[in-house]
Amino acid sequence: MSNYHIKHLEEYFQVYRKSVRDPERFWEEVAEEHFVWRKRWSNVLSWDFAKPEVKWFEGAELNITENCLDRHLRTHGEQTAILFEPNSPDEEAQHITYNALFEKVNKMANVLKAQGIEKGDRVCIYLPMIPELAIALLACARIGAVHSVVFAGFSAKALATRINDASCKMVITSDGSYRGAKTLDLKAIVDEALLSCETIEKVLLVERTKNKVTLKEGRDLWIQPLLDEADGFCEAVSMNAEDPLFILYTSGSTGKPKGMVHTTGGYMVYTAYTFKNIFQYREGDIYWCTADIGWITGHSYIVYGPLANGGTTVMFEGVPSYPDFSRFWEIVEKHKITHLYTAPTAIRALAKENIEYVEKCDLSSLKVLGSVGEPINEEAWHWYNDNVGKNKSPIVDTWWQTETGGIMISPIPFVTPTKPTYATLPFIGIQPALMDENAQELKGNQVEGRLCIKYPWPSMARTIWGDHDRYRDTYFSAYANMYFTGDGAMRDEVGYYRITGRVDDVIIVSGHNLGTAPIEDAINEHQAVAESAIVGFPHEVKGNALYGYVILKEYGESRNFDNLKKEINQQIADKIGPIAKLDKIQFVPGLPKTRSGKIMRRILRKIASKDTSNLGDTSTLLNPEVVKEIMDNAL
Ligand code: 7RM
């Protein structure tokens, strides 16, 4: 029996049982056999969910880049580590070997050091999907700096909030970014953000689009001349297993984004182990995850997981629709992709287009398909399975979160029989629980409740940067001794899990988590707005879209409502980013509220979803007349 590479269902059950019966022994074996450590741990796990405090591989020392790079040089030096496919199909793809990647990472690490970055410093990375993005993460890890990647679609304000929250010392960015037919002026966004950031000492600039930028004397530097001069070797810094590796922000149900802190040893072990098994990655495979490295999926399953396994990982700079809707399928054909890991929102968008776009491409290299980010609906699942997988490539519907660091519930391809819309079985070492309204665990099968995890796993986030109380309150206070995920789920008659969606005020739009509160804050800043509430409603491509109910200070008939809607959306784009724009805006005289003043979002959700036959319990509703008015004018 192999712990590391599971190949049969029976083996899965055996290994799972072992991982639950003696988690410490199990993870110790995995850690010992498959990674290089500079110093061994003194204790595998200590934990207390009440504090909460979780430590894996305490006392151990390592550097994750030695596991992702150095150790592969002898055996895989000339194999492609990163395969970069640019935005435009006319620009040549780049095959960066492990040898070349090693040198690039070492050089960048030396540049960071020369620019004053030391172990423990936070470095903000605001880059498009170009190789320098992955290299920057690894360069930080090489010298023990904590990276904080901010998705390069976020606005200046959102960027500034994140830089300030973590007191970053440096930003690594580029002159611009290509996204389909558009060019974005990233440097200008950084300049605007930095007007309200005091901790940034240096800005390093990657040249990508060659658009005109202004450099601030003493602060901004082009990175290429520095790389040219830098030495090709940088001694890796010894990190404690529990030293932070990175911070990554995720939206919460209250205003401020949460800086989830991931540490080094456990994160490495779990992302590498899940990558190997959940994708059944073999020597020579070409694995492509279409996420952006700005999200956790990119951190764990474009960079760290694949590289820790000596794999070939594809980075795609562009979008599925440019130059046309064949782009994804052409990339699969061109690079003979064996693994495609994408999001339901992309699948739905592509399924709407002419099937010719898919059929004209040779997809025979594909072996495994993945889905992540939101529940995959039945129709999208079948379209993916039939047209992309040709009924021969299993779909791994992987459920997990920024907070979990790695995949938690998922089939293992060729091992776990799949079932449309089901993430199926808990991965090795993961102990889920479903809880009812009275905080009792629902035992047995065919039950539905709130999804919790009962036992620590190696890649769980350890805290929220600068706010451990919020970490405890958000994840460990709803149910004693459990991690609460914020999701609802059901367990079917054989024990398969189906994730039903968020149970809090987070809405997933095109796979992006959006908290309602920060969007409402942005709307309310408009001078004409008195109050607002936003909810999600089903959208055939995005999964959910946003519906805003807005109360104006003065509801004059003479107003230009269309302009006002545009201004509100612009305000949202400026404060958060274009992904948070509202699809529908309804101006309303009031919002349905309870007697204690809480907005009854449930009612607003029903109206937005055109599902008003039964509004449920409205006995606590203070102002029923408002509900009728809103329903009569719903969009
Ligand atoms: C990896 C990622 C986390 C939230 C999570 C869920 C939802 C993610 C699935 C899913 C159903 C899935 N991290 N979610 N994967 N829901 N099936 N396979 O997406 O932090 O950005 O989002 O996404 O609600 O709590 S995330």
Automatic annotation (TrEMBL):
SUPFAM superfamilies: Acetyl-CoA synthetase-like. Its EC number is 6.2.1.1. The keyword Acetylation applies. Residues 519-598 form the AMP-binding enzyme C-terminal domain. Pfam families: ACAS_N, AMP-binding, AMP-binding_C. Gene3D superfamilies: 3.30.300.30, N-terminal domain of ligase-like. Residues 70-462 form the AMP-dependent synthetase/ligase domain. Residues 12-68 form the Acetyl-coenzyme A synthetase N-terminal domain. Keywords: Acetylation, ATP-binding, Ligase, Nucleotide-binding. It comes from the Bacteria. Belongs to the ATP-dependent AMP-binding enzyme family. This is Acetate--CoA ligase.
